[in-house]
Design goal:
heterodimer, A: 730 residues, alpha+beta, seven-stranded mixed sheet, 28 strands, B: 234 residues, alpha/beta, Rossmann fold, nine-stranded mixed sheet, two-stranded antiparallel sheet, 5 helices
Chain lengths: 730, 234
Amino acid sequence: MRWDAPGTVELAREQGLSEEEYGRILDSIGRTPNLTELGIFAALWSEHCSYKSSRVHLRKLPTSGRRVVQGPGENAGVVDLGGGWVTVFKMESHNHPSFIEPYQGAATGVGGILRDIFTMGARPIMLLDSLRFGSLDAPRMPHLVDGVVRGIGDYGNCVGVPTVGGEVDFHPSYNGNVLVNVMCVGVARADGLFFGRASGPGNSVVYLGSKTGRDGIHGATMASDVFDESASEKRPTVQVGDPFTEKLLIECCLELMGKGLVVGIQDMGAAGLTSSAFEMAARAGCGLTLDLSLVPARERGMTPYELMLSESQERMLLVAAPPDVPGVLEVCHRWGLDAVEVGSVTAEPEVVATFEGREAFRLPVAPLVDDAPRYERPWVRPAPAAAVTLPPLHNRDWGADLRALLASPAFADTRPVWQQYDQSVGASTVVGPGADAALLLLPGTSIGVAATTDCNALACGLDPFNGAAQAVAEAVRNLACVGAEPVGVTDCLNFGSPENPKVMGQFVAALEGMAEACRAFEVPVVSGNVSFYNETSGSAILPTPTVGMVGVVPEVRHRPRGTWREGEALYLLGAAEGELGGSRFLQLVLGLEAGPVPAVDYAAESRAAAVVRGLVRQGLAAAKDLSDGGLAVAAAEMSGGTVGAELALPEGVAPARALFGEWRGGFLVAVEPENEQALVRACEGSPVNRLGAVGGSRLKIALGGNVLLDEPVEELEGLRENGLKWLSES
Amino acid sequence: MKAGRRRPRVAVVIFPGSNCDRDTLAAVEATGGEAVPVWHQSRDLAGCGSVILPGGFSYGDYLRAGAMAAHSPVMAAVRRHAEAGRPVLGICNGFQMLLEIGLLPGAMLMNRTLRFICRDVHLRVERDDVPLLTYLRRGQVLRLPIAHKEGNWFAPPEVVREVESEGTVVLRYCTPGGGLDDGANPNGALNAIAGLVNSAGNVLGLMPHPERRVRGIVGGEDGTPLIRGLVEAA
């Protein structure tokens, strides 16, 4: 089929457009589009690029606040850090490509999110990965885990941005659809930001970076569809990453920006040259001309269709004033990168491309971007999970229950994963992976930037509203453990097909829960990503609205730690009991994915987080939040497998709820005896209980004189170490 | 160093894929040196007294770590500098380059796990009698991070014998107490070798990253003595 063949409704359907959408194209341009134009519509109107099913609901998120410099709509969100610094951050999914080809899928996910950050003028300072896999005995699953981890490592390690946090979890609902959500945090001077705007008619458009090949054509469309048995046939839609070129691009772009040679800039991500050209034009209210014959091509004979829709990696589109173009090209060539002037900015809001001397396409900007279809898909509000009758929960072997939890992959020590990532390049990592949150120093200062990713998908499956709100609360707690105050959120909303009213209902409820929590904690959402169609052969993933939260520590004076030390006193901040609904205890010990997930108590959570934040900043305490697995798991983790402790639970509590209950917004805190008074004073008005002291080699927890469990901490740690050990071997 | 005196100038060579260059420049400044970035296409070292080849992926390292960098214009200057007896420090990818151009013996294989490894290791100091190692004491144990996929030092038996008999091993992977134990060797390097010096004592290569440990808040200052030794030898 020739690139300029006339479009038909059948061709439209092949590219993922509906008949109604094809009619809308005919109306908006008043003629029959050629194949290239049809491909451009299909890419920009895909779910992935247009957010057509989610946009009407995304408006519910709070996106403004006193620190917000740039909310959603740009390549990434920007929040003020003080001292003339801003942080630029975003999280994005690369789920579909990673399931088809895990190594390249995950690697290019890292590459894409890095470009979203440095394209704004920020130097990327950290990466986090939120990963979801299926059961390890599912087909291909160990291969997928290994491939994703190697892909993330090889890309991030080479570009020299430390990977410092994230999560790894497992559930059979991801057997046919793994999740790879990558978050990047960058920093810039407040007056050094750049935007993806093709402004100033007469300005030059420069193509910069790798040559365009035939890889990844229609990747955005692939990511907007469900999988079936033939998923492996989609391998050619996955791109191949080149981290060395990415590294050159980072340095080259930051140098161009520092020299004042850039008017606007955007990376060629999903939908490649198409999205960068049309989105940059749309944001500026301008148009572009492009000579596609000038685009550096990797292969001979590439057509306008292929050049516009290739998703070859490591490419940027840049707008510069004509007198600056020689300077731009000089810098690019010094970095060994292809750079070619391929067009110019026009006042008329349309993109006009020529190829071999004749017009290849001419399309108005608005119908493709701002006036793309929006759907209010039918949805049904999910009924929150009801209470279930539990078996009698007394006289159990609580030690065996704790062992069962710690031996599950969900609680495995993730060291075999993150030891494959460079965590300390940049020499700014104060707290790296394996902790509640990462904490890095802003280069050359003592300002701390913290980040965490969180989502308990099990809870979101039972109650999308409360589950999503709890994810936000957990992120707030995790930041508190390193002394950081939350300043902004990026989200990555992973769901099944939006055409299924039940899935759409999960999406709406989760979004509302996240919105409520972000309002209550006063943390705006400044960027994010929606990934629909995460299902295979009709079976959808658990709703997984991942929260990425960034926090700030105005001055880092002490190194937060997540383990307790010999001789310290242990306190429980927060309720003495948690709830068992949606808990890991029910899931992994009793085999029940059931029960109600409680609403977040925002006032109590905020108070407790503020107390912990203060103690950690002053170096007075080590803290761990009580989340998955409750108090018993938190205690095992704080022991680090080296020093034990003796804890006595408050009188009258139910053992299961006290040991393994979740959703209580609490912290386990360790302080030196001389700081106990300071801790009690700081907790005034909030529930606090002294549980015991650190010492010995066993974790001993008693209730009213009865020892509930008494386990050697070294053995408990050994259970955690075994879960993913195979990943560190050859 | 006395106030008012000119700070020693240390060249930090920047290859397109260097990614520890900024950390190295900062570490030199933090230990009293004047850090001078030198681009890989330069044919001289800007009159600096010492030179550091920093870590990273010089030219992408798709072929073999450091193999392409060995042929870059600046390396001729580095070689002349080394042959004149002036101080040269190669860190990680920089160590790999020193092996590639033959300033130090042996070669790097893939880690025995065939995986990238980034974690803190313990290192036993084996030499303290050359100017570069002024601030270290033989038998001292350092804790520094490694971050590499090709750090499994290898050489034919006669070269290993020579290295050991000449005593040019500077650092060995060890237990926290300083003992040699295969479990403490992260990558499979022969004789747990993590760092080497040439027989003249002016060219030093090591796999761990001292430039990442010059501030306590990010995990310790065990890297300071190595960087300071190079700065003051400039």
